[in-house]
Amino acid sequence: MDLLFALQSFLFLVFLSIYVYLHFYTTPPRKSTHSGFKTYPILGSLPEFLKNRHRFLDWTTEILRNCPTNTAVFFRPGKIHGIITANPSNVEHMLKTNFENYPKGERFIDLLRDFLGGGIFNADGELWKVQRKTASYAFNTKSLRNFVMDNVSFEIQTRLVPLLARAAETGCRLDLQDVLERFAFDNICKMAFNVDPACLGGDGKSAAEFMRAFDDAATLCSGRFLYAFRFILIFKKFFNIGSERRLKDSIATVHNFADDIIRSRMENNSYEQQDDLLSRFIGNDNNNSPEFLRDIIISMILAGRDTTSSALSWFFWILSSRPNVQLNILNELEAIRSRNGQSIGDTYGFDELRDMHYLQAAIMEAMRLYPPVPVDTKACLNDDVMPDGTVLRKGWFVTYHAYAMGRMETIWGKDCHEYVPERWLGEDGTCQPDSAFRYPVFHAGPRMCLGKDLAFIQMKSIAASVIQRFEVDVEDKGTCPAHLLSMTLRIKGGLPVSVRNRCI
Asked: On the CB side of 89, how many CA atoms lie within 13 Å of its CA?
């Protein structure tokens, strides 16, 4: 019987290989009557996916741009069926109008469960609502805003500026992306559980190990979504080999570091009268088990650390080749200092940051072209029809493509590929936000990013402090860097820069 089964399996694979060869190599792919992904018999869009997954964002952007409604149906073996859209009406439908029909879904949650557990960014239903309610209250308190501003100011004055000043004095080149990631990591760890890992300018070895492990875990988890065949992932995970072994080790390091902090805080009752997020969740009686708290905190670190550093890395790359934009920012900063009797080096307060309209427009324009979270995926619970007429079936995935949306002429006009901060400014010079469904950089609807305002506090504080003191020269500034698609959009290989003191 075993021999017969083996022979049947062998013949099946031979005939399948011949069939695939005939259709893939000797006949052109079958196209639908509309633009979209090329499809092949049985294999769907798998061959095109394998051919282009190393450039997934640009490939799918090209496809969506040529579709009548900027929406395309995608299919490949393994029950992977769904749509990818860059249509604002569809985005509003899935993120707001019919929100309950588009949860994260079991596939998304399962792929990230090892790392994020049941944290707010990997939860649906009541579990998500409980966390959202507590986090929403915390993010809307003035005490947390002041706590974040104090921490950002401390990190800038005592670590970031001295680091850049030393680089300017010695001529040493820096990886600015790495610097920004370490800054954001210190800041979000203080905000999340009031622990200073001192990754920027510090010597905390355990914290540095935690940060490296966090990096690896985020990148490897993201890679799970690009497997052509799910059984390969299952095989590697079951036998604990390759990338899955590295992922398991990285997650263990992250969890152990977070568990030690949470355990110490709970045992000593040291969370009372503190403003960090961990203290607020420990004080929540709904669920404050150590595992639940760890999942929440890891999700918060992921959101706060990777997004702001990604946005600023692309922003500084863009800025390096646009002296006119730098000049406009410098003029705005000088006007704000003059109005408030400040000098270069003084800390900007909340009101001063709020008046930085051109700087905010410049950062928002950078995120339009290089959104920190370039794609986001939901699951379709029940059959539905999108506003553009696209039909969805139960169990399909639905992905909105923020990276592609920033490059759609139908949304931003003929200059959609150009960097134009002025598109965000009103006639009075104030920064005017656009619809979150045209610009879903901070998500939209009930899952709208709670940390949006705090993110702008951090990004504007860093950008203003760096730009007014230093000239940042990016190596090979005329060439667009390759991107690394992790859970956020990072610059592949970092952002090498040289720094000079700005002549005042």
From this structure: 10
List helix spans (H) across 119-274. 125-139, 142-155, 161-170, 176-193, 205-223, 230-239, 242-268
Task: Tell me the pairing of strands 397-401 and 80-85.
Answer: parallel
Smallest CA-to-CA distance from 171 within 503, 504, 501 is with 501
Q: At 341, is the secondary structure helix, strand, or coil?
A: coil
Q: What is the pLDDT of residues 390-402, one digit of tens each?
A: 999 999 999 999 9
The vertex-163 CA angle with 160 and 166, nearest 5°, equals 150
CA distance 458 to 283: 27
- Token pair for residue 191? 């905000």
Nearest to 458 by CA among 121, 208, 154: 154
CA distance 103 to 94: 9
The candidate with the shortest Cα–Cα distance to 292, out of 139, 109, 117, is 117
pLDDT in tens, 182-210: 999 899 888 888 888 888 876 556 677 88
Tell me, yes or no, if the pTM score tops 0.85: yes
Answer for the pair 488, 310: CB distance below 8 angstroms, yes or no.
Answer: yes
Angle formed by the axes of helices 242-268 and 290-320, nearest 10°: 120
b (16+ CB within 10 A) / e for 182-211: bbbbbbbbbbbbbbebbbbbeeeeebbebb
Q: What is the pLDDT of residues 30-70, one digit of tens each?
A: 444 457 999 999 899 999 999 998 899 999 999 999 999 99
